[in-house]
Amino acid sequence: MNLEILYTVTYSYFLGSIPFGLVLTKIFLNKDLRDIGSGNIGATNALRTGKKSLSATTLFLDGLKAYVSIAITFIYFPDYIYLSALLCVLGHVFPVWLKFKGGKGIAVFLGVLFALSIKLAIIFIVCWCLILYTTKYSSVSSLLSTGAIFLYSIYLKNSLESIFFFIIFITVIYTHRINIVRLKNKTENKITL
Length: 193
Known about the structure:
Elements: H1 3-16, H2 20-29, H3 43-47, H4 52-76, H5 81-93, H6 106-116, H7 118-135, H8 138-156, H9 159-175, H10 177-184
């Protein structure tokens, strides 16, 4: 295997796999985030602890780990930007430390977008907020906003980028599969800010 690919895969995956929501909840609340709400380790479930600051910090740090991963790749292995981004997201979704049961990847994906394109990050945030305001479902916001980025990437006519965003979209559908069932059964929890 190409050593540059091996290095990129390794640090991207392990940076992505740091479970900040779980760590912060343990430190500041002495609780296991997996025992709260949906059991997810991400920012949305951290909000269910009743600590908005904890949720915001989780969101920031999960996004930052992706940004740092891609920043390293930009400097040392620029040919593997999308590989780094993908492995960071997959590290968050399937962390080895948690028996491959991680978060849903949205905050990490947002960090990826900030690293790749501020414009794409803003489009995602605006879509996410508008959909959340309309539906009150974080899952719907995440699914539709990720899909919107994929569709927009097709318009930009960058085939490699479109393939990357398509894989992310499929990954997000997978991580939200239980939410999709709950939405269908009208049992999905709404978000109150």
